[in-house]
Amino acid sequence: MVVTALKQSSPGRFTVEFDGGVSLRSTLDAVTDARLYVGMELEDEAFEAFRRSSSRSLDRQKALEMLSRRPYSRRELKDKLLRRGTDEQSAEDCVDWLCERGFLDDGEYAGAVARHYAAKGYGAGRVKSELRRRGIEREQAEDTLSALPENTEKLDAYIARRLRDPSDRDSVSKISAALFRRGYSWEEIRAALRRFDSMIEED
Asked: What is the pTM of this model?
């Protein structure tokens, strides 16, 4: 097949036209790697190799564009690529390629997610659940949680804002249940309630 035209469709992207009315969407990288030029003739094997290279390069560009808009975990980005029509093998290649270049890092992403939820006053249980939902592997999630400082200040502040009388069992029960839903363990909640009791007694 003979290359009849190289048309830039957008920055970094090309449409390559061949004789017989055949055209392929490609990228600057794929065109440059194949050293294409108008009038160049490609044997069937070379044409097929260029088609595969173009498809892979387009998928990588798509993945990089997604990642430039918001952070993802490896699994989240792969799932999104699959939903957008990328096949399994190419989606895996894209996330591998991004990881190798440091653009996709589950450790950094997990840390950012954990800090965000901890800053909002959520406990380790909720943070862990959020990490797992976003596709962070169990071991990485545990490492991330172990690096977080204790969140007793947020916990104490939550109780101080809502509990007026420590002897009001109804209020204590409701607040305890709410804190448990926010990811705090019963041990953490009981310790925080004891701290609140002590503070009230001192006052």
From this structure: 0.79
